[in-house]
Amino acid sequence: MERNFVAGREELQRARALDPTYTWPLMFESYIAIARGDYDSALQLAEQVMEIDPRFFYDVDPIANVYVAQGRWQDAVKRYASLPAELLARPNFQLAICYAQTGQSDLARDSWLIWKPFLTSATLIKPTSLRSMPRSARRTKPSLRSTGPATTAPLG
Questions:
Q1: Which stretches of the chain score pLDDT less than 70?
Q2: Which alpha helices (DSSP H) does the chain contain, by range?
């Protein structure tokens, strides 16, 4: 069903009918809406996720995720700031990108440095992810700069 958004959405709606309180089908429907550029629907679905489970947080916040897809960086930063601190106890790549996009390079860099203990020499970094960060947020670590499809250089 790759890129068959209609069939994918139908399958997710069947899953929702089986268990309306299960949040993942809504989350995936939100991803589909984002992929289609239907940000209003994506935001409504993300809000439904949060209504069902206000503590739904798996690396990204559903609502902030829609803001990021729209390029609403400041709204995404505000959304993350409104979340309980324990949800942000782990490093958050998306928040680092939001900081960088809003010109908060120091916070973006600090967010990246938090990742250091989680990374090993075998970690692959996608160059497209790094390109989305302004140069000022990635200036200090040459090993983070993209030289091809991926880099395996350790951060240390």
A1: 1-2, 114-156
A2: 5-18, 23-36, 39-52, 62-70, 73-81, 93-101, 105-114, 127-131
Whether residues 142 and 98 fall in one domain: yes
Residues 77 and 97 in one domain: no
92 CB burial (10 A radius; 0-12, 13-18, 19+): buried
**63 vs 84: CA distance, rounded Å:** 15
Q: How many CB atoms lie within 10 A of CB 100?
A: 23
CB-based contacts of 61: which residues, under 8 Å, 6+ apart? Answer: 79, 80, 83, 87
Residue 58 contacts by C-beta under 8 Å, 6 or more apart in sequence?
none
pLDDT in tens, 4-31: 878 888 888 888 889 989 999 999 999 9
Amino acid (one-letter) located at 91: P
Give first-to-last CA distance, the chain, whole Å: 41
pLDDT at residue 140 in the model? 46
- Nearest by Cα to 83 from 94, 71, 72, 69: 94
pTM of the model: 0.67
Q: Which of 55, 84, 113 is the last residue of a domain?
A: 84
